[in-house]
Amino acid sequence: MPRILLLPDEVASQVAAGEVIERPASVVKELVENSIDAGAGRIEVAIARGGASMIRVVDDGIGMDRDDALLSLERHATSKIRTGHDLAKIHTLGFRGEALPSIASVARFRMSTRPHSELEGTEIIVNGGKIESVRAAGDAPGTQIEVRSLFYNLPARRKFLRSENTEASHIQHQLLLQAIGHPGIGFVAIRDQTLLFQTPPAKALADRIRDLRGPELLEQLLEIEAFSTDGITVSGFIGKAGASRSTRAEQILFVNGRPVENITIQQGLREGYHTALMKGQYPVTFLFLEMDPESVDVNVHPAKREVRFREPDTVRNCVSETVRKTLETDRRRWTQAFQRPVEEPALHLPVIESTPVLIPTSEQFALRRDWAEFDSTLAASAPFPVAVQAAEKLETSAGAVPVTSAVPIATVEPVAPLEFKLLGILGKLYILMESADGLVLVDQHAAHERILFERLRTQMESEGVPTQRLLIPLTVSVTPKDYDWIATNAQTLEKMGFAMEPFGNYSTLKIDGIPPYFTTDDPSVAIRQLVDELRSMTSTTSRLRMGEDVIAKTVCRHAIKANDELHTSEVEKLLRDLMACELPYCCPHGRPTMIQIGYGELEKKFGRKV
What we know:
Shape: globular
Number of domains: 4
Number of helices: 20
CATH architecture of the largest domain: 2-Layer Sandwich
Oligomer: single chain
């Protein structure tokens, strides 16, 4: 007797269904996507007991006649593709022709459908993949599908379902994704006869986000201005600096209207935000990418969650550049808020005259030195370690000054007053200002960190990263894949301060020099981490990215601290320099440098406004 046998159709259908239908949320996803492809203007989804007992999806789409309705239950029967060439240019959400037969093979299935041009429709009942009845029906135009007793004929699969609340939350997440991805369609979600949400068709994405997530979240988002490059158009909303979460759960990504999970896009987001987020935090995004369907492969996974790009670097660069440009609009908003005068003439503390200032203690000398003197010392025309050592030397030399002595520092030249009202400094740390929009608080330490960070990084970029030669070269074994990548990008690595070359075979490298910021505790691990990090960066990434943690720690030590008293002219120069930064609203560690409390929020606090 042969050992290899053909599986019965029933078993083969159940095996295939396991790839497409993982849980009740998979059923909802497939049915809602079919409704969207059918041109529905309203979709209603009702579930019972987390979807395991009942799922009903009703739409007002184009519907099907009897022949098409019967064919839709045959495996690989679809109206969305005709040839293999069509797989390379898919415009619809569904295309495999597997969803309906897979669902019908593992549940008690009922479908009622009617085209708008017909007076009667068709009702089909299927149990465990076997058609029980086909008859005329008089339901409204569109399609209604009921799925009951999911996995009733696969008790092992049914036992793996989670609690009702867990399965219901997955379904609700799928519905929210589809509702956000298609704001022009009205959605109704019902759980155990209780309305979860109901949202009418929206004219704009912002309206749909407000309806589903509330106005508070919308206020934390920045709308992406129309941005297109290399055939890719990016739109949607991204979170302002500081609007982040500890997981990627709030990174909502769409490619050609399809919700996806994709590491290339996630890397582009990380690159675009860069120091605008704290480590371990992820931005809130509602990001939409539109591109030629031939540039993206959606036929990667049966559940169609993953996509693959023909040119991932182009996509990553586009996303990164879009995020940077959008954050730049937020910077301009802050800058304009500071430059726009308040209704009353701005009040200014007295400006220090152009005379030497005497500092009585060595501690104050180290902390209260003039901005120009400090900046010129830190950004001296020297490579990275020299510039850092110069700053550290300045701090160390200050300790040699007797405590009782009075040390003159550089003169402070008077400058033009700012156009906002400077109210004062709270707790010797927070600068209080009045803008046209309300109250603004600036953390003087975080602000100075950002200023020094960008200046030192710019100076290092212009002069290059020095290479620290090793007395004894290191040999590191890497995988063939990493070896090939390093050989291809040798010129980039050299600019970053690495001196390495092949050694012996095609899996060993000899390292003669490294940049000053690179750790050599475990060279093999460090090199692999380097390659992984660089692979996730865009072509426009600063070659100093690997050393920015060191830069951030350095400027943190040398930035002004809490309890450092600043004169008005120093405060005004600090604010001007901050507004000239690329990312003025956060420090190099991702903490905010400033926050604004609008008049509306203040009026709510005092009960003047509901």
